[in-house]
Amino acid sequence: MHYIGMDCHITTLEFAVVNEAGRLVKAHKVATSVNGFMEFVKKVQPPRTIYVEEGVLAAWALETCVRFGEKLVITDAKKNRWIGSCGQKDDSIDALKLAQLARGGYIKEIRHPVGQRRRFRELMIAYHDTVRGTTRIKNKIKAKFRQNGIQCTGTTVYSETQREEWKGKLPQETTLLLILDGLWRQLKQSERIEEELLAAAKAQAKQYPEIKLFQDIPGIGFIRAATISAILETPYRFADKRKVWMYAGLGIITRSSGGKLYSEKLSTDYNRLLKYTLKQAAEAAIQAKDSPFRRKYLDMTLLHGIAPHRAKLTIARDMLATMWAMWRKGEMYNPGIREKAAYKQD
What we know:
- By secondary structure, the chain is α/β, with parallel strands linked by helices.
- The protein contains 14 helices and seven strands.
- The protein has helices spanning 34-42, 58-68, 81-85, 91-104, 116-147, 163-167, 174-204, 209-214, 222-232, 241-247, 272-287, 292-303, 308-329, 335-341, and strands spanning 2-8, 12-18, 24-31, 48-53, 72-75, 252-257, 260-266.
- Strands 3-2-1-4-5 form a five-stranded mixed beta sheet. A two-stranded antiparallel sheet has the order 6-7.
- Strand 2 (12-18) and strand 3 form a beta hairpin.
- It is globular.
């Protein structure tokens, strides 16, 4: 077996090849290109696996290897502390250390989608980025009025038909009006991009039947269903629901020594967008009428005295476990699935 460590840069790719005995058998640097990449890899005697740290070129490297039938593993740079924490450091040394870590089995793999799944995930991330951008612009518009002593509530300040009326309330200073006009133009453009991305997401979502299934769950609309599908990619990447909870930032990390438990806390290494989406979904499910999640939340908080934030965390776990079970089995939503997939504290 040959372990190929690769250090990626936009101009060069640095390689180090280690055999099963841990000896460096080959090292080389090539210009960053598909041809240069594959030309070097094909010269390494199989069986072989390429290892690269997560970064801007990781997805490109993975797509290239899939196309040419090569195996590539994307590793978690945060776990590879040996590479940057001791001694000399340069690209060739980094590649060699990565290959040595892979040989010893000390790397943590990061999964990346490929093909259409990769593009759908990028599309949903771009949509959420645009929504956040739209919100920032709206906040800046209202801030301009408040900075000039004008109360600004509601949404009419964003409407094109009422902008002149709002501008009339401001001091008629050229600079101030120019800044505000610029913000309104940015808002219009951001909202247009948001609509285009949403339309594209709805078109692509037809390829993924689980999105429609998820929308039957209280608190889950199209955006949340599509986001969860895009981020998780497949239910089979997780051995059980607790693994899914950890990835979503809903799992518990325990630390113990000598048989004594020292700490329990929520996982800190998780997907931020997934956790945000699930928290919003839990809030919506709790507010939905005749929702089993609402009934469970009220039972926990009113009858058992559990703190609201802990009850919401449980609801988010319950919803994620339900979706994970539905996805694996290809089943539609019903309360029976929810009861089967609900979390257990053991």
